[in-house]
Every structure is written in structure tokens, then in C-alpha cells.
Amino acid sequence: MTDASGPEFSGLEEGEAQQAADIVQEVVAWYTEQIAAERRAPLPDDERLAQLTAGRTAAYQDLQRLEDADAEEEDRLAALYAARLRELES
Q1: HSE of 45 in the Cβ direction (CA atoms, 13 Å)?
Q2: pTM
């Protein structure tokens, strides 16, 4: 469900690895868009680029961890990235 505050990811059930992966991928996409925009800026901010790149790298690593995660870890990462996405988009 999506509303004015963004996607709703509460109430994930065990074993919903794909939904957790989708949330992490949304965060990766946000970072990718921001990196591209910063690189196109007349005077790119190298520090911001480094922060964005580090955030995207961490999200990619968590996406890989989801491949072997148990249901509890999937739920934890889904909740973490749902909160991060809301924060990034605010």
C-alpha cells in the first residue's frame, strides 16, 4: 500500500524474502538516482558522492545477505530499509 507518507511495509510475514529484497532495491535505486544527479551537478560534492556511494554499497551487501537470510533476518532488514526509505524520501 502506498500513501502520502510512502510505501507501507509493516506486517511482513515470515518468508517474504522477495518483499524484503524489493524494499532494499528501492533504497538502492534512490541512492543510484542521487549519485547520478550529484555527478551531473555543475560542481559535484565529492563528500556527498562518497556518502551516497557508501550507502548504496551497504544496501547492495544487505541485498546479497538476504539470499541466505532466515525469516527473522528478512523481517529485520525489511523493517530497517522501510524506515530508511521513508527517511531518505522525506
Answers
A1: 8
A2: 0.78
